[in-house]
Design brief:
This protein is mainly alpha-helical and 185 residues long. It is built from three helices and no strands. α1 packs antiparallel against α2. The longest helix has 78 residues. The protein is rod-shaped.
Amino acid sequence: MSLFQRLKTTLRADAHGFVDALEDESTLLKQHLRDAEAALLEKRAMVGQLESEARRLEAEQKRATAARERLERAVALALDAGREDLARYALKQLLPRVRLIERIEARLREIGEETRELNAALERQELAFEELRARVQAYLADREAGRTEAGIEPVTDEQIEIELLRRRRHRESGAASDVSGGSHG
């Protein structure tokens, strides 16, 4: 294979490598955008799960509150009738309901706080994501426009020969100046 053929092949390979690198960069940007969108979807799903848990707990709270009220009336009725044994029986059923209601209320407060924090983070991240999406799209569009305007053109054998002659002449003129410059020192 002649020197010119090897040079031509090398230049073409470099050009293809450059285009591949640009495509890899584009692929990476798009992948990062998809990852950011997936993170947003995950946060939205977490908010949905918290809201679902809150609805379930609120329904459970209503049932426990109704049972507590019923048992409170039973305790009062038993005490009014002088039946401490029945009052103790009703209290034995009432106290776990009171504790359950307290745990539900505490968890509902936690859920409310978590939901507020997640919604605030989600709002910030959605804005950042939209900005990122716009920047990536603009960058890719600019790069694509630049690629079509100033794309890599194939190199002809004649262009390679001319470039090689220029470099030889430059090297020879550089060597001549080194020799003349070296005699002065």
